[in-house]
Amino acid sequence: MTHGYRTDSYGTMGGERHGWKELATKYALVPLRIFLGVTFIYAGLDKLTDSAFMSANGTGSVGELMRGVRDSSAIPALVDLSLKSPEGFGYAIAIGELAVGLGTLVGLLARLAALGGALISLSLWLTVSWQSDPYYYGNDLAYLMAWLPLVLAGASVFSLDAALADRRRRMR
Predict the structure, then answer these.
(1) What is the pLDDT of residues 92-148, one digit of tens each?
(2) SS3 assignment for 8-60
(3) CA-to-CA distance for 83 and 77, rounded, in angstroms?
(4) What's the burial of 64, exposed, middle or buried (CB within 10 Å: 0-12/13-18/19+)?
(5) CB–CB of 121/53 below 8 Å?
(6) Regarding predicted confidence, which is higher, 33 or 4?
(7) Rounded Cα distance, 131 and 140, in Å
(8) Residue 79 in contact with residue 127, Cβ under 8 Å?
(9) Does pTM top 0.90 for this prediction?
């Protein structure tokens, strides 16, 4: 007698038969959505509630951070643009992170939210963490790569996008 697990087992979900591989594939991006959504919400709230960060000057300020990475960034002109209004840039990044995180977590305009997350991560990689040596010590590149599957696939389950699409299908 052999013991093992069956690869041909099926269950039902929503009246349709699904094997465990199909179910695993269907829900594969949910943990990534939760992680990125919560992380970006936290990052945005952390910045918005840190008065030191939202300053043009001083220890821990966005202005000080951008001046510190200006000469080592891949695109110094992008850093120069942020230095025209460090507080405005800080608020833009924080609100952007919050919007991206909320959109990703609840799955509302999920592809657009993921694209926003990818663009934020790309801009931070090209400016703040560009000087990381070796490159894999900087986390912004890893975040950029993590956003790409969500840009491509969106949020097909446990999302407002899926609920709205289902509602549109039923109304036809």
Answers:
(1) 999 999 999 999 999 999 999 999 999 999 999 999 999 988 888 889 999 999 999
(2) CCEEEECCEEEEHHHHHHHHCCHHHHHHHHHHHHHHHHHHHCCCCCCCCCCCC
(3) 10
(4) middle
(5) no
(6) 33
(7) 12
(8) yes
(9) no
* Rounded Cα–Cα distance for residues 168 and 49 (Å): 39
Query: Average pLDDT of the chain?
Result: 91
Q: Is the pLDDT of residue 13 over 70?
A: no
Tokens of 68: 């510190």
Rounded CA-CA distance 100/112 in Å is 8
Backbone angles phi, psi at 130, to 5 degrees: -60, -35
Q: How sure is the predictor about 12, in pLDDT bands with cuts at 50, 70 and 90?
A: low
Contacts of 74 (CB under 8 A, 6+ apart): 126, 127, 130
Q: Give 1 or 19, the one with higher predicted confidence.
A: 19
Which structure tokens are listed for 21? 């591989």
User: 3-state secondary structure string, 103-128?
Assistant: HHHHCCCHHHHHHHHHHHHHHHHHHC
Token pair 């703040």 is found at 128
Distance separating alpha carbons of residues 118 and 151, to the nearest angstrom? 8
